[in-house]
Amino acid sequence: MKIRKKNIILPNHHISELAKYLIDHEYSPKHEITICEKLSYLDEQIVQVTLGEDKQIEFG
After folding, report:
1. From the centroid of its chain, how far is CA 58?
2. Tell me: the pLDDT tens digits for 31-56?
3. Fewer CB within 10 Å, N- or C-terminus of the chain?
C-alpha cells in the first residue's frame, strides 16, 4: 500500500503506541515520519525516523 498524504497527528498516548498501531494497520515499518516535540521551548526536538526506529527513541 502506498500512502502519499501528509498528516498531523497529536497523540494522547506514547508515540511508540502510535507507531505500533500504524504498523499493525498496513503502514510499513520503513515509513518515514517526523516527530516534533515541545515546539518553541528550549528543549524542542524535531526528529525524522521510520516507524520501526521510533520505538527505540525516548520522547516526553
Report:
1. 12
2. 888 888 888 999 998 989 998 887 66
3. N
